[in-house]
Amino acid sequence: MKRLINLEMKKIKYPLFTTIIFCSIALSILTCTLYSAWSTSYKIDAWEIGTELFDFIFPIVVVLPLSWSLYSERKNNYISYVSARVFLPRYLFAKWIAQAIGAFLILFIPNIISAFSALILTTPTNPSAMQIAHIFQTVYEKTPLLYAVVLSIWRGFIGILIMSMGYVLSMYIDNIFIIMTGPFVYYIVENFVLSVIGMPAYRLTTAYRPISVSAKVITASSFIVGPLLLIIFICSIGLVESKVKKTKVRE
C-alpha cells in the first residue's frame, strides 16, 4: 500500500506543488495588501480579509490539480491495465489517500503561510476600533497563531471532503467539466439553499469560514452539519452510479 501511495504522489506532485506555491504567494500578497483599506484591530484580521476570495473558490483550487488523474486513467484505459495486476479497490484507495494528502496540503500550507505573513508583516489600521464579535474571540485576540493553525488544519480536512466528491465523480463520470466544477457547484447551491431556508449557520461555508456569519448563531453543529451533508451527498453519488446505474470504474 505504501508503495502504491508513493507512486500516486509522484503522479500528482507537479500540479500539486505548483498549486501550493502559487496559492501561498497569492494569499500572502492579498493578506499583506487588502487589509489596508479596512479598519482592523488585530494583525490576524488581515488574514481573514486576505483569504476571503480564496475561501470562495477553494473547491476549484482543490479539485483542479488532483481530479484529472483518475479521469485520465479511465479515459486511456490505464485503469484496466492496472486492475489486471493490482486489486482495483486497493489501487483506488491508495490513489484516494494520495489525493487526500494533496488536498489537505493545498489548503493548509497557503493558509498557514499567509497567516504568518499577517502576523509578521502587517500592522492594525485602527487598533482602538471595536472588534466584531468572534466565536473564538479569546483565542483570536490572545493567541492568533493557534487560531490560524487550528483553522488551517480544519480547512485541510474540509478540502479532503471536497476532493472526495471530485474523486467519486472521476470514478464514474466521463465529462471532465462536470468533474472539475461539480464540487464548486455543490458548494454554491448548498450555500444558497441553506441561506434561503434560514439555516446559514449550517452551511459548509460556515464550517470552513466561521466569520462568514454572526457569532451568535454559530454552535458546535455549525461545524458538523455542512461536512456531514457533503459526505451524504458523496455517498449518494457513489451508490446511484454503482448500484442503480451499474456504472463501472473499469469498462
Count of extended strands: 0
For the largest beta-sheet, the strand count, sense and barrel status come to: none
What is the N-to-C order of secondary-structure elements (H for helix, E for strand)?
HHHHHHHHHHH
**Per the principal axes of the C-alpha atoms, what is the gross shape?**
globular
Radius of gyration (Å): 20 Å
| Structural class computed from helices and strand pairing | mainly alpha
Helical content band: over 70%
Distance between the termini: 24 Å
What is the helix tally?
A: 11
The portion of residues forming beta strands comes to: under 5%
- Uncertain stretches: none
What does this structure look like?
This protein is mainly α and 251 residues long. It has 11 helices and no strands. Helix 6 (88-121) packs antiparallel against helix 8 (144-172). The longest helix has 34 residues, at 88-121.
Furnish the topology, listing elements before pairings.
Elements: H1 2-33, H2 43-50, H3 52-63, H4 68-75, H5 78-83, H6 88-121, H7 137-142, H8 144-172, H9 176-196, H10 204-208, H11 225-244
Helix pairs in contact: 1-2, 1-6, 2-6, 3-6, 3-8, 3-9, 6-8, 8-9, 8-11
The gist of it:
The protein has 251 residues and is mostly helical. It has helices at residues 2-33, 43-50, 52-63, 68-75, 78-83, 88-121, 137-142, 144-172, 176-196, 204-208, 225-244. The protein is 72% helix and 0% strand.
Key features of this structure:
251 residues, mainly alpha, 72% helix, globular
